[in-house]
């Protein structure tokens, strides 16, 4: 067996080992969005408003009056977002810890 045959066999073994599906990275959210989630199908969903709050703190503050206002507002959005667990509205409502029209701590 020549050294070329040996290298050829090693190359085949490497290709077989690397043939598993590579896991996709999360990636960056779209412009103006803060978070990103990769679904099981590989689709990338960006959600949440980017930037800081006026006082420099975190924009998402569950359990506050601002949280209650957000939950009430986002609960009125029309469409079939309730049936899709990966909809941007559902993902944002999870971050705000919304239960109906109220935000819990």
Description:
This protein has a domain at 69-105. It is built from 3 helices and 4 strands; from the N terminus they run αββααββ. The protein has helices at 3-17, 65-75, 88-95, and strands at 33-38, 44-49, 98-99, 102-103. Strand 1 (33-38) and strand 2 form a beta hairpin. It starts with a helix and ends with a strand. With 105 residues, the protein is an alpha+beta fold. The strands form 2 sheets. It has a two-stranded antiparallel sheet. The longest helix has 15 residues, at 3-17.
List keywords for this structure.
alpha+beta; 105 residues
List the helices and strands and how they pair.
Layout: H1 3-17, E1 33-38, E2 44-49, H2 65-75, H3 88-95, E3 98-99, E4 102-103
Antiparallel strand pairs: 1-2, 3-4
Q: Count of DSSP E strands?
A: 4
What does the radius of gyration come to?
23 Å
How big a fraction of the residues is strand?
15-25%
Largest sheet at a glance? 2 strands, antiparallel
């Amino acid at each position: 067996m020549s050294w070329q045959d040996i290298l050829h066999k090693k190359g085949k073994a490497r290709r077989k080992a690397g043939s598993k599906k590579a896991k996709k990275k999360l990636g960056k959210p779209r412009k103006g969005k803060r978070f990103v989630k990769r679904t099981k199908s590989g689709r990338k969903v960006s959600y949440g408003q980017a930037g800081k709050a006026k006082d420099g703190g975190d924009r998402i503050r569950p359990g506050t009056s601002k949280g209650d206002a957000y939950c009430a507002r986002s609960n009125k959005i029309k469409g079939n977002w309730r049936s899709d667990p990966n909809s941007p509205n559902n993902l944002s409502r999870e971050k705000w810890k919304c239960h109906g029209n109220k935000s819990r701590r």
